[in-house]
Amino acid sequence: MVLKQRARKEEDKQQRRDAITKAARALLERSPRLDATIAEVAERAGVAKGTVFLYFATREALELAVLEVELEAWFDAVDGELDESGKWTVQRVTSVLVSTVVLRKLMVRLLGKLHATLEHNASEEVILAFEKRLAARSLATGARLEARLPFLAKGSGAKVLAYTRALLTGLWAMAEAAPAVQRAMADADMAPLRVDFEREFEHSLSALLKGLAAE
Amino acid sequence: MVLKQRARKEEDKQQRRDAITKAARALLERSPRLDATIAEVAERAGVAKGTVFLYFATREALELAVLEVELEAWFDAVDGELDESGKWTVQRVTSVLVSTVVLRKLMVRLLGKLHATLEHNASEEVILAFEKRLAARSLATGARLEARLPFLAKGSGAKVLAYTRALLTGLWAMAEAAPAVQRAMADADMAPLRVDFEREFEHSLSALLKGLAAE
Amino acid sequence: MVLKQRARKEEDKQQRRDAITKAARALLERSPRLDATIAEVAERAGVAKGTVFLYFATREALELAVLEVELEAWFDAVDGELDESGKWTVQRVTSVLVSTVVLRKLMVRLLGKLHATLEHNASEEVILAFEKRLAARSLATGARLEARLPFLAKGSGAKVLAYTRALLTGLWAMAEAAPAVQRAMADADMAPLRVDFEREFEHSLSALLKGLAAE
Amino acid sequence: MVLKQRARKEEDKQQRRDAITKAARALLERSPRLDATIAEVAERAGVAKGTVFLYFATREALELAVLEVELEAWFDAVDGELDESGKWTVQRVTSVLVSTVVLRKLMVRLLGKLHATLEHNASEEVILAFEKRLAARSLATGARLEARLPFLAKGSGAKVLAYTRALLTGLWAMAEAAPAVQRAMADADMAPLRVDFEREFEHSLSALLKGLAAE
DNA sequence: GATGAATGAGTCTTCATTCAT
DNA sequence: AATGAATGAAGACTCATTCAT
After folding, report:
1. Domain of C6: which CATH number?
2. Are D92 and D153 found together in one domain?
3. Do the Cβ atoms of A192 and B131 come within 8 Å?
4. Are A48 and A62 in a shared domain?
5. pTM, entire model
6. What is the gyration radius of the CA atoms in chain D, in angstroms?
7. Contact across the interface for A210 and B210, Cβ inside 8 Å
8. Nucleotide F1: nearest residue by CA–C1'?
9. Could you list the residue range(s) of the whole structural domain that residue B51 is in?
10. Which of A114, A136, A190 sits opposite B135 (nearest CB)?
11. What tens digit of pLDDT does each residue of C165-181 get?
């Protein structure tokens, strides 16, 4: 029996919530299949299983919280870079988007799974909150994109981010194959299907932006 | 229930295999979550559960077979259109890719789930066969694309198809939201995140192609 | 069905564990094939299937627990008798071993199946615990045997128990035949193979002990 | 499709039957769990699955046939040795029984499983035939034992063989432990429970015979 | 608020056996 | 007689979630 202090103040509660999210994050990061169990999360967070559900209504809500943390950090990073001065080109923007994404494996994986997650078992309330926050940040970063790439029409920045997300998750899924698939791809005839994530992401994204510029 | 017929000839076997695949197809088509069980498939195909496993080693192998049927049909359709004469532009190619995809819900869903499927429980042999066929068709259709869009470098056609697939599955996942998500998106603030699949797919794909042309 | 009680205290947990073991015991007792399912055990114990797995990691672990209960009772009985005073002879010892065993059908059956059980699906930890307890009791009872039958060398008591177990399970298997076998044995020519368990067990065991005495 | 010649003559049939039995024997020999499947047996024998059932009504009947072959060989060996001249003592008889048994792993394993097999799914007819043959050979070899060990009462030879079988299978089950059990037994405290099959079989069997002699 | 015991839905897969060919 | 396609019973186990304590 673990005797835990109770989080009476709002501040304490947030702290506990963060601890759980953090534990989940750490665990998910280590499992490409994203299949950490609630029991494991609870143990790592040093709380009881039931406690997790005190802070997150469902497993999916917890997953969403982790993704939100990841996304916030990513938006922060992108915003930070976009706010820097200098000459902005498609190439530079692409480079920002690619470089900030490449090391955020967990975010990309969770984004790829987002569809399934949301479809499965999250409450309307949680979904709404998530989507709202995502919308807000998309708009803000989208606006920055529009500022940096003047050929982007007003309001199209968020769209670009959506396209980016599509390319990102789609190419990642092709590139980050299961071991068995990787062995299958080792075959010589498979070369045309082999996807080097970073290279292709960059290539397709910059093409897409160039195309938008040319419109 | 006793099945009188026994598929002794190779031809009959293929026919039975097709019947099972077809049953699976019909069931999957009706379940957005793609979670038809083997028992359901067997029942619909009018065979015993064990019989399904006679033709498909695992649930995933069956799923792959369904996807393969869908993909073949799609490649056929695309090839057919690309083989038509006339003047070819980015717009026309985009239009071909968009129009052939729009009504193939199941294909798009299965493609989106492909990553997870392959990761889960398909034998190396089955994966290899699937990937091989996919590679072959991608190359063939890729070559056609190169012929129609001369700005595409030799060998880049398959890449374009990969980008297309990424945009396709990624945008679909955003657009085909679960009911709860749809309600959440109904909110006014959400407008910038709302994705009209066909419109955005077309837009992003044509931009991408234009970008490649401009390189 | 909702179980109101929750075993929070260690004591309550032990009690619940016992209840499950007891239910399993009752069921196994009634099935000569020892093939009660977990679902049946759970139902009889008045708990959910999952609860059984809360207390026993595998079906085999539960079986082992039942056997352990049986064995403890048997060792207790034997020890109790061996601790009585009076004159001890091979005959008396044999009589103790035979009489304590004769009515413990379930123990004998489970002992006969032990090999297969352990081979199948018990965790190393569970096996070790079981074997340790068995060893301890074998040593203790073995020592008593040595005290009662002075011709037994120091340390050979446990061996005698092993021989006893071998005769016991082996003869039981021959004697407790399936109905079909019994009918087959009814044939006149079969007389020499017919095994009256108690009689033969006693005969062989006393001979074995006498033989050890004569060494 | 394998085109097989048909066994029209009785002789051919027996030959095919033997081929199947032999294949089963070879397979069982290699699997300590005795879990070769009929499909494997058929393949090794070079016949179709259905053909196996043409010669053996059930899986168990086949198992019984294999055991019978093993037992016949063993009885032959024992008889051969017992028919040799010279001075016969308990020691020599024990030695014959032990030495003929030690290398017949498969026989011992199958004997250990016999109870379960017979209980499970063999037809009365097959059981009867098996038991009859076993009885006949037991009687014959029993008679030889009586001749060699004059202290054995008339008709008790078969009993001695039954006791032998009990010790044999019982001790084997203790000695031939599953890997996990072996690791458990490696523990120091377990020494008293560790069973060296040959040594203990010999020890207990000779004691038993000596005891019978002393009666 | 925290705990952790209890719940129970959910499903694939194997393989002996049958029987149409 | 031989084949091998078709059958279908059979069952353990996981884990998100609930709720008595």
Report:
1. 1.10.10
2. yes
3. no
4. no
5. 0.89
6. 20
7. yes
8. D6
9. 1-55
10. A190
11. 999 999 999 998 877 78
